[in-house]
Design goal:
By secondary structure, the chain is α/β, with parallel strands linked by helices. It has 10 helices and 8 strands.
Length: about 250
């Protein structure tokens, strides 16, 4: 199994380097918007593109990724909301298991259905323990998953969930407050989780300011993901990237 990108995640974590990923929802961008995001992301030295969404009702996932790959060397990782969101043109797939919920379909059911197609795709597969945290507003992911998010103040539940995910063999933990969250995940929760796992920790949802991204990294996040805020103001790409990359090594 290919592990080039995952090894990069591990090496960056070991060296204390923080990463910034721009999340692109194919339903919310056209060719012109993608070109703008590519230009700004390249200038800002963004580390990764995450591509996907909870629905992705459009049919141009492949075209979106091909456009990105034709104009950029930034790695593209699929962030799928369903088994149908797989494209052989990406570099890797975050193979998400919703470990914070109790919906068996999103723990293993949909993976069984998608496994032959995913295997055939040739993508680098990154088993990811996906945890939805209450961001103060109903989100698409909580509705689609039919799962109750972890309460924002229940740090111990988040910690134990992440630990369980790691011990079950997950290679990444992704904590997400969801697109359009009113509040981001607290530094207290991030710190609690980061101190008790050894695998890379990805944080997303509700991050709208560079300072928040910086504080999340100092608390223990290895990768910061921003999508919704950038859709509203693409100029944030440079500001947030600078903030993430300015975190002192091993801060």
């Amino acid at each position: 199994m290919k592990q080039a990108l995952y090894n990069q995640f591990i090496e960056r974590k070991k060296s204390g380097k923080k990463s910034f990923a721009v999340l692109i929802d194919p339903d919310k961008v056209d060719n012109e918007k993608i070109d703008q995001l590519l230009m700004l992301s390249t200038e800002a030295k963004v580390d990764y593109f995450f591509v996907g969404g909870s629905l992705v009702i459009s049919s141009h996932l492949d075209e979106c990724i091909q456009q990105i790959k034709s104009s950029s060397n930034i790695p593209v990782l699929l962030f799928p909301g369903s088994p149908s969101q797989v494209s052989k043109y990406a570099d890797a797939l975050l193979y998400l298991s919703l470990i914070s919920g109790r919906n068996p379909e999103l723990l293993i059911g949909q993976h069984v259905i998608s496994a032959p197609f995913v295997k055939k795709s040739g993508l680098e597969i990154m088993p990811t323990g996906y945890m939805v945290i209450d961001g103060g507003a109903p989100t698409t992911v909580s509705y689609i998953s039919n799962a109750t998010p972890i309460p924002a103040d229940k740090n111990e539940i988040a910690m134990c969930t992440a630990m369980a995910g790691e011990m079950l063999g997950m290679k990444l933990i992704y904590m997400d407050a969801g697109s359009g969250a009113k509040r981001a995940i607290t530094e207290h929760m991030i710190e609690k989780v980061a101190r008790h796992i050894e695998i890379p920790l990805i944080i997303g949802g509700g991050i709208t300011e560079p300072e928040k991204a910086y504080l999340n990294c100092k608390a223990g996040a290895d990768v910061i993901v921003v999508g919704n805020a950038i859709e509203k103001d693409a100029s944030l790409i440079k500001e947030i990237s600078n903030a993430v990359h300015s975190v002192p090594v091993n801060a």
